[in-house]
């Protein structure tokens, strides 16, 4: 078992990132520290001075792990990446949004904009960041907008009758909407902005320094202060940020590790000389300590679909396939460059013997040794949790089966197979657009490929009838030999109480199927309160934290899956109803319009000429669309 007191003594007095976990091994909080021992120990000291939210989090911490970093800045960037990856429960509750901002140039648009975003995506846009100081990012964008009259609005097209915005009238927009600038001239401005954000800011700095000096000599001190702030923003960009598309100091470090259960490759990403991420990739069927097999197989499988490769990969030893792997990686680099996903460069392997790269790989090796010990301990604890959950599910199956006089089909402790659980939920909006969803778990893990969605056909607004229809359709699919529903569950969980449980059981009885079923009842705060059986008896989860966390996680997942599907269904219906109100627009034309313009707003802003470019849209129909949306202005 994880002994928190003993593990606190082992923490180093160095910078790093720590990860708090609950009884199921889920990461519930990620934080950074200048001193790991001091910061992590704080959580387990006297609770009197702690915020109530901190106390709530601490009550759920059952173990923790940490990653060493060289500096606080390195820890900050790593913390950001881990928060975005795991979305821990208490980071959301206790912290400001730690998804750090980027400056984006929307190259996916005909006339790109410069914006701040916290959600960089692979969508053809170019991103600069992340910024640890959002103020510097905002001032940098303001600086760009002061110097370059670029587009501010998000419109992708403009009707002929459009009126220019205020920015146009004050000289802050070049008037794309009224045709005052050619695309080549506009893109020239964008290229200059990209050079500036990419670190080639010499010319713009000279201009600003001259303006600041002139303003100061003319005693316009407020103007001089504005130029000074712009220069500070530029310095911030140069010192703290990097463009995500290309860097001449991108390095990956690959360290094989052999845990007591698995062999794995630990990959450390170093960007601009800073450790920004650590990931572990398990290698199935790899022989223990077989370095010559693990490294080549990892490289071939891991990098093949990457849109950006590092310039250097540091290894501990030579590998026999280095020549062919170098060619393989550089073919990927070539394709990425041709498709404009990355800059032109090659990737090389290094086995450093001295200097800063040797220090980097030594740091990674030391961390990997500690990580191996942590992974071994974690695997042992996970085995304990899996066994405890299996025993609790066995107890639920035995009790639910016993109420119907059935002999339960249960698994023993020694069985490698995990129980298969199916959970169901129904969702609608005021009785309209009723849908249901099924999620599947095997032991502790969701089996997302087996998730299923159901659009309710026969009932409207009646949750019990919708649930009955869902179970009937799902079970018939297995009876009929549908490959997508080939397995029956060992037990069914349903979101709700006694009524829902009895509805599920009646649906099974009509098909002569007997599977244990239980309900997950919530309290007034929408937290999982109890397990409900068909006779109305309950198991309170207040004192059973393991079952509370497990059942609650499944209930939240099926609810998320159902409500997401319901919202998507409602959104599609609303789009359909709006467009088909227009004379001449039926289902086929509606689909073609959405294929071309993607959403209602873009159709609304499309010009008459843009609409005529869509196959099947006649002059009359285009006129009707323009007139229809013009009536809303």
Task: Tell me what the structure shows.
- This protein has helices spanning 4-10, 36-43, 52-58, 72-86, 89-94, 134-147, 166-169, 183-197, 202-217, 221-240, 291-302, 322-338, 355-403, 463-479, 498-510, 545-579, 587-597, 600-605, 608-612, 619-630, and strands spanning 16-21, 27-33, 63-68, 102-105, 114-117, 126-128, 251-258, 263-271, 274-283, 312-314, 348-350, 420-429, 432-442, 445-446, 452-455, 491-495, 517-522, 528-532, 538-540.
- It is globular.
- Helices cover 46% and strands 17% of the residues.
- The longest helix is centred in the middle third of the chain and has 49 residues, at 355-403.
- The strands form 4 sheets. Strands 12, 13, 14, 15, 16, 17, 18 and 19 form an 8-stranded mixed β-sheet that branches. Strands 9-8-7-10-11 form a 5-stranded mixed β-sheet, sandwiched between helices.
- With 633 residues, it is α+β, with helices and mostly antiparallel strands.
- β17 (517-522) and β18 (528-532) form a beta hairpin.
- The protein has 20 helices and 19 strands.
Describe the protein's topology:
Blueprint: H1 4-10, E1 16-21, E2 27-33, H2 36-43, H3 52-58, E3 63-68, H4 72-86, H5 89-94, E4 102-105, E5 114-117, E6 126-128, H6 134-147, H7 166-169, H8 183-197, H9 202-217, H10 221-240, E7 251-258, E8 263-271, E9 274-283, H11 291-302, E10 312-314, H12 322-338, E11 348-350, H13 355-403, E12 420-429, E13 432-442, E14 445-446, E15 452-455, H14 463-479, E16 491-495, H15 498-510, E17 517-522, E18 528-532, E19 538-540, H16 545-579, H17 587-597, H18 600-605, H19 608-612, H20 619-630
Parallel strand pairs: 7-10, 10-11, 12-16, 16-17
Antiparallel strand pairs: 1-2, 1-3, 4-5, 4-6, 7-8, 8-9, 12-13, 13-14, 13-15, 17-18, 18-19
């Amino acid at each position: 078992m994880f002994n928190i007191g003993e593990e606190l003594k082992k923490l180093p007095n160095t910078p790093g990132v720590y990860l708090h976990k609950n009884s199921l091994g889920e990461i519930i909080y990620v934080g950074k520290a200048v001193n790991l021992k001091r910061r992590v120990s704080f959580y387990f000291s006297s609770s009197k001075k702690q915020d109530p939210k901190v106390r709530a989090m601490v009550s759920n911490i059952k173990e923790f792990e940490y990653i060493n970093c060289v500096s606080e800045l390195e820890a900050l960037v790593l913390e950001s990446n881990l928060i975005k990856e795991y979305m821990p429960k208490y980071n959301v509750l206790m912290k400001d949004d730690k998804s750090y901002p980027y400056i984006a140039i929307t190259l996916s648009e005909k006339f790109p904009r410069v914006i701040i975003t916290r959600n960089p995506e692979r969508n053809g846009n170019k991103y600069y960041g992340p910024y640890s100081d959002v103020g510097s990012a905002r001032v940098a964008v303001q600086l760009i907008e002061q110097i370059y009259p670029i587009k501010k609005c998000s419109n992708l097209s403009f009707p002929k009758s459009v009126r220019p915005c205020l920015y146009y009238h004050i000289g802050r927009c070049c008037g794309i909407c009224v045709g005052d600038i050619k695309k080549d001239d506009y893109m020239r401005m964008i290229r200059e902005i990209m050079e500036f954000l990419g670190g080639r800011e010499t010319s713009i700095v000279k201009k600003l320094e001259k303006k600041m000096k002139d303003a100061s000599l003319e005693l316009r001190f407020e103007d001089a202060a504005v130029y000074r702030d712009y220069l500070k923003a530029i310095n911030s960009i140069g010192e703290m940020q990097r463009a995500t598309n290309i860097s001449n100091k991108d390095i990956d470090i690959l360290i094989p590790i052999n845990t007591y259960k698995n062999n794995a490759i630990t990959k450390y990403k170093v960007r601009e000389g800073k450790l920004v991420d650590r990931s572990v990739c398990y290698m199935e069927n790899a022989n223990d300590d077989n370095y010559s097999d693990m490294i080549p197989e990892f490289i071939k499988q891991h990098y093949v679909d990457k849109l950006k490769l590092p310039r250097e990969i540091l290894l501990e030893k030579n590998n026999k396939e280095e020549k062919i792997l170098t060619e393989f990686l550089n073919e990927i680099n070539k394709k990425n460059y041709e498709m404009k996903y990355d800059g032109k460069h090659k990737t090389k392997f290094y086995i450093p013997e001295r200097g800063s790269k040797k220090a980097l790989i030594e740091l990674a090796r030391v961390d990997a040794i500690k990580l191996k010990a942590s992974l071994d301990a974690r695997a042992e604890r996970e085995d304990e949790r899996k066994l405890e959950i299996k025993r609790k599910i066995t107890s639920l199956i035995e009790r639910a089966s016993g109420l119907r006089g059935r002999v339960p089909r249960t698994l023993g402790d020694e069985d490698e197979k995990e129980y298969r659980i199916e959970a169901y939920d129904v969702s609608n909006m005021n009785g309209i657009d009723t849908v249901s969803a099924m999620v599947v778990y095997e032991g502790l893990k969701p089996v997302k490929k087996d998730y299923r969605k159901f659009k309710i056909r026969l009932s409207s607004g009646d949750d019990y009838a919708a649930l009955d229809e869902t179970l009937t359709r799902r079970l018939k699919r297995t009876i009929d030999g549908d490959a997508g529903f080939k397995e029956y569950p060992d037990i069914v969980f349903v979101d709700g109480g006694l009524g829902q449980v009895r509805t599920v059981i009646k649906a099974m009885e009509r098909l002569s199927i007997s599977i244990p079923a239980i309900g997950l009842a919530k309290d007034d705060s929408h937290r999982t309160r109890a397990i409900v059986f068909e006779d109305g008896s309950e198991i309170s989860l207040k004192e059973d934290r393991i079952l509370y966390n497990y059942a609650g996680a499944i209930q939240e997942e099926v609810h998320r899956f159902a409500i997401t599907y319901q919202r998507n269904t409602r959104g599609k219906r609303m789009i359909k109803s709006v467009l088909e109100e227009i004379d001449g627009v039926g289902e086929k034309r509606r689909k073609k319009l959405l294929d071309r313009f993607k959403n209602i707003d873009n159709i609304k802003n499309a010009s008459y000429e843009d609409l005529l470019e869509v196959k099947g849209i006649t002059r009359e129909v285009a006129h009707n669309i323009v007139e229809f949306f013009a009536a809303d202005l």
